[in-house]
Design goal:
alpha/beta; 6-stranded mixed beta sheet; 21 helices; about 20% strand; globular; binds 1-deoxynojirimycin
């Protein structure tokens, strides 16, 4: 602790300390342009004195605005402690990268790191010192709107990607906050803010590892989540907030609540009063309260009454002040804010180039009946509401503006150097069932054999508060695709979305499907690169795509039942674990995606059939590019522990490698598999491996059955 911090802690009154532990939305306290203090303090009931001493503001940025607010604050704060500005910079600040779920599909940690670094560079110049990212909630239910913020359904991959984001933000000079601790992604029925109920084992094995990985990588903050977990709202979970996060993982940074989550413990039916909320949260080492005023209103009296020790408050205060020191704010309260420089950096050619590369590497080719890549000199037309749509930025697009984005039509026209015909086909609200535009669209494109149908859900259909109970492609768009096919066209669909959508209804009418997600600022250029074959699609799914919404939650690393449906056919459905109206398997599994060439993978071999405690084996397989062009495959390694004291999942991802081969080339791909990678939380709660047989799978997606048998001998 520096002398400065020690001195401040000594000098500050209890009231001042409580204010410092509070974060408000700056718009409540300041008007954006003048930095004048507004009258009421919004719903939080803050006094003028409270407002003058608050510790932090969120979601307020812009170089000049930040300076004005900081100046105003410093002129009023008795201790001249600078504010720290935090913002949801989730996938870019001005230059918008693909949504994190898409970026996850790149399976490319270096790329995620680079995107995070550039996000940080833009953010700092715009007056932000800390981002509420990465979000590493494990997600299995595509109905939940926030799956777009995560990197998917695999704990190992989420940990790797989360760490890459942390490194990138730090490289770019910005602090970062991992969220939402814990298990927020397990919201029942995919409904936003809903209850979660997750066993301790499940938590430890699936939901917690990615947060831990980010903490170990040096994430500066952790955000506790809104949700009720096993009957207790997160901010009431001493076991997780103190025992796990602080003691077991050694996290000594700032723990911040999610928006108003401290006072929401009352609505949950857990605590009755704001006093109790303050006492519980501070007792669980929640250092900063976002957007509720339990601390400001009650911490001083709680300390005076002896219900909370001043030492406990001081410890939180120290963490908050240390965070500000780390951000360099005592030396320079504006951080790296620089309006002039920002003009050159925001959306600079280098940033756009990275956004384009990221969008290219995030789009997943789900089907290709030989139609892609399109040949540049063959005429084709565009259809669908996303052909000319520029809001393809996705939710949480920060300062991203649709007018700075490139639509599919613009991207293709720029690449081809000619104008293209496009017909929307769906007028008005694209989620409404209005099919009246279809005849005119068919008429407009009738002279073209091939149609690129740009369809999907709008940016606002995913993100916070944007759960959907029906995740099919909106009906008028599905009808458009069908009508195009029935009119004799070859249909290549480009699908936009912030979640896996149910594609079963359109799939039979599509000759190709490229899943573009919400690709960000350079989306249209990237899609043109892919459609025209300048680039090969290399991304692979990190969330399973259900056949029907009713399959959610659906994920590859699930368990067998006592009555599995094998083979997975509709005929074989009686008294076994199945549906009457659909298969068990997803339409497209985790790890799946196509490129522009064909692959053969065979001959899985182990360097030894046996492995011992502390030992390792090499797993190899032969990969051949059997197609006509060079390409790259994502070779994946999975294991299954056949019998154990606790039933193990059907498959667990343990590694992956991108391998690029020329047409006709063949290569042996090798993975290192250690005994450590076979460990799990056993029936006695120990993290250990158990003797017995394992299947070791190698494949091009999680449905692979290519395997070898390994025996762990103890
Ligand atoms: C609520 C969201 O859950 C969280 O992810 C976000 O960081 C905060 N609001 C601040 O905007």
């Amino acid at each position: 602790m520096t002398e400065r911090i020690e001195k401040l802690i000594e000098e500050m009154s209890l009231e001042e300390k409580a204010r410092q532990l509070t974060q408000v939305n700056a718009k409540i306290v300041y008007t954006a342009t003048t930095a004048a203090i507004t009258g009421t303090g919004g719903a939080m009931g803050l006094s003028e004195e409270d407002k003058a001493g608050i510790g932090s503001v969120l979601n307020f940025s812009g170089a000049d605005e930040e300076k004005a607010v900081q100046d105003d604050h410093l002129s009023k704060d008795p201790h001249k402690i600078p504010l720290i500005f935090m913002q949801d910079v989730i996938h870019g600040c001005h230059t918008i990268f693909p949504v994190p779920l898409a970026l996850g599909c790149s399976f490319d940690e270096a790329l995620a790191e680079e995107c995070a670094e550039m996000s940080a560079v833009e953010s700092r110049l715009n007056g932000v010192q800390l981002t509420f990212s990465p979000m590493v909630d494990l997600v299995r239910d595509a109905r939940w709107g926030r799956v777009m913020e995560s990197t998917g359904e695999d704990p190992y991959l989420n940990g790797l990607m989360g760490k890459a984001f942390v490194r990138g933000y730090h490289k770019g000079g910005m602090l970062c906050c991992v969220k939402h601790f814990a298990a927020y992604g397990a919201a029942e029925a995919g409904r936003e803010y809903n209850t979660t109920d997750v066993s301790e084992r499940n938590l430890k094995e699936y939901f917690l590892p990615a947060y831990r990985a980010c903490v170990e990588e040096g994430a500066d903050l952790v955000m506790s989540s809104f949700n009720l977990l096993n009957g207790i709202p997160l901010n009431g979970h001493k076991d997780l907030l103190v025992d796990t996060l602080r003691k077991e993982w050694g996290f000594d940074g700032v723990l911040i609540s999610d928006y108003a989550a401290v006072k929401e413990m009352i609505a949950h039916g857990y605590l009755e009063t704001m006093e109790e909320c303050a006492e519980t949260a501070i007792g669980n080492e929640l250092d900063m309260e976002m957007m509720s005023s339990a601390y400001v209103r009650h911490l001083p009296e709680l300390v005076k009454e002896g219900k909370v020790s001043e030492e406990r408050v001081n410890e939180s205060l120290r963490r908050v002040l240390e965070m500000k020191e780390k951000a360099g704010l005592f030396e320079c309260p504006y951080g790296d804010t620089d309006a002039e420089k920002a003009k050159d950096v925001n959306l600079s050619p280098a940033h756009r180039a990275l956004a384009r590369k990221a969008a290219v590497r995030s789009a997943v080719l789900l089907k290709n009946g030989g139609v892609l890549p399109l040949s540049a000199d063959r005429p084709f037309a565009l259809a669908g509401p996303f052909a000319e749509e520029k809001n393809i930025l996705g939710s949480w697009a920060c300062h991203g503006r649709p007018e700075d984005a490139v639509s599919v039509k613009e991207g293709l026209e720029a690449a081809l150097g000619r104008k293209l015909v496009s017909a929307k086909g769906c007028e008005g609200d694209i989620l409404a069932a209005d099919e009246s535009g279809i005849p005119a669209a068919l008429e407009a494109v009738k002279g073209f054999k091939t149609i690129v149908a740009c369809i999907g859900e709008p940016s606002a259909s995913s993100g916070e508060g944007a759960s959907r109970a029906d995740i099919r492609i909106p009906a008028p768009q599905a009808a458009l695709v069908k009508a195009l096919k029935e009119a004799g066209h070859t249909v290549a669909a480009v699908v936009f979305g912030g979640r896996p959508q149910v594609l079963s209804e359109i799939e039979p009418y599509c000759d190709a499907i490229l899943y573009a997600w919400q690709p960000g600022t350079e989306g249209g250029n990237a899609i043109a690169d892919l459609l025209l074959g300048k680039e090969e699609p290399t991304a692979r799914l990190t969330m399973s795509f259900p056949r029907k919404t009713g399959q959610c939650p659906i994920y590859y690393n699930c368990f067998n039942t006592g009555r599995p449906r094998i083979p997975d056919t509709l005929e074989n459905s009686n008294y076994i674990s199945s549906y009457r109206d659909t298969l068990n398997a997803p339409l497209y599994p985790f790890g799946y995606g196509l490129g522009y060439t064909d692959w053969e993978l065979k001959g899985v071999r182990l360097s030894s059939e046996k492995i011992v405690e502390g030992g390792r084996v090499t797993v190899s397989a032969l990969l051949k590019n059997t197609g006509k062009r060079a390409g790259s495959a994502l070779v994946q390694l999975y294991i299954r522990d056949r019998f154990a004291s606790v039933v193990r999942p059907l498959k667990e991802l343990k590694g992956f490698q991108r391998v690029s081969l020329a047409a006709g080339e063949e290569r042996e791909v090798c993975f290192d598999l250690s005994e450590e990678m076979l460990r799990f939380y056993t029936a006695s709660g120990e993290f250990a491996s158990e003797a017995g047989k394992f299947d070791v799978f190698v494949g091009l997606d999680s449905s692979t059955s290519l395997s070898a048998e390994l025996t762990l001998v103890k």
